[in-house]
Amino acid sequence: MDLDFSEDEIVRYSRHILLKEVGGIGQARLKAARVLVVGAGGLGSPIVLYLAAAGVGTIGIVDHDLVELSNLQRQVAHTVDRLGAPKAGSAAEAARAINPEVAVEPHQTRLTAENALDIIGRYEIVCDGTDNFATRFLVADACVLARRTLVSAAVLRFEGQLSTFKPHAGEYPCYRCLYPEPPPPGEVPTCSEAGVLGAVTGVMGTLQATEVIKEIVGIGESLAGRVLIWDALDMRFRTVRLRKDPACALCGPAATTHDLNEHSRVALTCAG
Amino acid sequence: MQKSLTLILNGESRHFDAPVTVAGLLANLGLETRKVAVERNEEIVPRSTYTVTSLADGDSLEIVYFIGGG
């Protein structure tokens, strides 16, 4: 492990280095880490900002969209100055403004069955902060196939859900052990249809960043095998157990999903 | 004679005719299986076992709604 920090880096990360659970070794692990953030929206914004501030050495950001005025109620990485600009680039700019020591790699593209394994394969940990089920299942499947840890959060209205999926690292479940298939089309609203409290996305994205940092540094209790469910109106956090589903089509012993072809068909259907 | 059992559903006591499975409970509540996850005694029940998972008197259940916003 390369512990060669500049004096500025030692000052910048001093509050981390002071933590006995992090220290110089943990900070070096963060510097060596490569994390991909899928979706530079309500969840992706705080993830990117906190990972950059924390000194995660390489941060990839995938988003094909442009910054819109309706994003600014919650997507705190973007600014009025960057309305109309690509979100991946805008979030990268925000990250660099906080910490020029980290490398930020914007991917201004839609994640597809064709490019998902290539892009995800370049990183060690993936954060899902996307706003649609098609991409969520694509990310989940690609992470299992590429053996990458997935820290996944979702929000709607006043509620958030969060878990870590790493079936490649032991007897841990994957996303499909929790939700085997997408909901019927149009049956579960998106944030643009049903709304979301901006601060709720900030809390969930920040929790996601926290779990990513724990996975990188290797400290505490991983959220793998558990799901955190938060209702902001009740202000009630619950953590429930999630075991590996032996019948899971993606990570079970009789798995039937070995590629991303299902997602190609979905994309074609949508395009048609 | 049919027995009844008491379940704590989203924090409230409810009576159901026994026996009842997770699948039966969701049908009774009119919930679409693909829109929810079911938490039983602080553990998620795998969807593949809904039809064979019988609920016991006193079980605590929470319906977790599938959300996907970001």
Task: Detail the topology: elements first, then pairings.
The complex is a heterodimer of chains A (272) and B (70).
Chain A: H1 7-12, H2 14-17, H3 23-32, E1 34-38, H4 44-54, E2 58-62, H5 87-98, E3 103-107, H6 116-121, E4 125-128, H7 133-145, E5 149-156, E6 159-165, H8 175-178, H9 191-194, H10 198-217, E7 226-231, E8 236-241, H11 261-271
Helix pairs in contact in A: 4-5, 4-10
Chain B: E1 4-9, E2 12-17, H1 22-29, E3 36-40, E4 43-45, E5 60-65
Parallel strand pairs in B: 1-5
Antiparallel strand pairs in B: 1-2, 3-4, 3-5
List keywords for this structure.
heterodimer, A: 272 residues, alpha/beta, Rossmann fold, 8-stranded mixed beta sheet, 11 helices, disordered C terminus, B: 70 residues, Ubiquitin-like (UB roll), 1 helix
Helix/strand-derived category of chain A reads alpha/beta
Please identify the oligomeric state: heterodimer
Mean pLDDT of chain B: 95
What order do the SSEs of chain A take from the amino end to the carboxyl end, as H and E?
Answer: HHHEHEHEHEHEEHHHEEH
Helix content class of chain B: 10-25%
**Do you know the CATH topology of chain B?**
Ubiquitin-like (UB roll)
Give the total of beta strands of chain B: 5
Low-confidence sequence ranges of chain B = none
Question: Judging from the principal axes of the Cα atoms, what is the shape of chain A?
Answer: globular
The main sheet of chain B orders its strands as 2-1-5-3-4
**Main sheet record of chain A:** 8 strands, mixed
Number of domains of chain B: 1
State the end-to-end distance of chain B. Answer: 50 Å
> How many H/I helices of chain A?
11
